[in-house]
Amino acid sequence: MTRQIGPIDACVFDAYGTLFDVAAAAARCRDDLHGKADQLADVWRLKQLQYTWLRSLMRRYVDFTQVTGDALDYALAAVGIDDPPLRERLMALYMELDAYPEVPEMLRRLRAGGLKTGILTNGSPKMIDAAVASAGLGDLLDAVLTVDPLGIYKPDPSVYRLALDRFGVPVERIAFMSSNAWDAAAAADFGMTVVWVNRFGQPPERLPGTPVAELTSLEALPELFGV
Known about the structure:
44% of the residues lie in helices and 12% in strands. It is α/β, with parallel strands linked by helices and 227 residues long. The chain has two domains: 140 residues, HAD superfamily/HAD-like (Rossmann fold); 71 residues, Putative phosphatase, domain 2 (DNA polymerase, domain 1), CATH 1.10.150.240. Strands 3-2-1-4-5-6 form a six-stranded parallel sheet, sandwiched between helices. α2 packs across α3. The longest helix is centred in the first third of the chain and has 22 residues. The chain is globular and about 50 Å long. The two termini are 13 Å apart. The model has no long low-confidence stretch (mean pLDDT 96).
């Protein structure tokens, strides 16, 4: 690691794609999807994000469970699959997504180093609570914050303020980690110290807000913060 970042009091993470593998549900149904698992996962995730942005602009909020179901319905139609039991299985599996393998130890190291940890997610309380419990991360988190009380999705600035209000420290002393380049940019523009977890080798977005560091996974994050 070339340099350390700090001082930091709290580490806040996006959930889906950052801590949890959003392709895991389709991967578990690979045989039933007949060669279309990867295509389905890609379209499902894309429409899921698009619907959060579009509903925010339309001021037509519904929680992330419905958004995820609507996006899945679109994705299944896009790949030419009409299978209601499979649809229900995919939705159930999305409630129990796999955490990336480095996540538990990374969180333990951060907390051992005296840092607070939390999630800031578009996910509904029902969804994120199920994912955290399934991955066994509950004891490693100080806060799980969702957009549900606001009725609007990222990248609205009010979402990032949730973390500021919860931890009560200067905005620059909150580190925010996301695998979504647009999310990382928005949090940086809000004033957080942002690490972009570029798991998928994407180019940076052409948006306001610049992360201070880029990683390919969360494994090296504690070292980045000197813990």
